[in-house]
């Protein structure tokens, strides 16, 4: 595979800034596309930066697991980059498998449907299919929401103890008068989610809008199954949690089960 070179404009320490440091870090990693191992002298020469800057950047990347130091004292790409790459491949597969199912779900429930995964203590929406006339007021920040006030986040936390603890450690921020911010009450919603196989959020992120989500599972009965993503339907509270709720729940759960099965067949 050919890796296209990254060519940022670099400057030395005198003009250092957080964004410039990120740019330099990417450029340093890009150096390893051509050679498996490099030292600070060669990295500095390639990028036109001071050797001291290269040393600090290499050490910082190694501390984060993006690089590792060999016995010779030089550096090579670390396993964390492989893990990130695998995540990217898995999520591309997830989106590819999910899209037809999401489209059918949207046509069935006539509401906006979403596909989301956990990123830190937030939910990142990989895909969203809107329905004409649904009237949902999306803003930029709707592409990444705090997990505690999201039905997808609730579904994911219900099967992931580490995510649950991280969310509680960050704190349950109140978005509306209906946001669950009491830790014990929020934990009880996770128990309920596990028992019923789906989660609901009523007016917790934006007044007047609610959602229902179901988990997409990975693993098997022997090793244990956990939610790696989730499908949700979002719309006005009266449509989501009124008389139509049983039909929406059934549609969301069936969609999540179909995506789970398709991922299993694909070996994910």
From TrEMBL:
Q: Which Pfam families match?
A: HTH_IclR, IclR_C
Q: Where is the IclR-ED domain?
A: 80-265
Superkingdom to which the source organism belongs: Bacteria
- Keyword Transcription regulation assigned to the entry: answer is yes
Asked if DNA-binding is a keyword of the record, the answer is: yes
SMART domains recorded:
HTH_ICLR
> Signal sequence: where?
none
Keyword annotations for this protein, in alphabetical order, are: DNA-binding, Transcription, Transcription regulation
Q: Which residues form the HTH iclR-type domain?
A: 19-79
**Name of the protein described by the UniProt record:** IclR family transcriptional regulator
> From which source organism is this entry?
Actinomycetospora endophytica
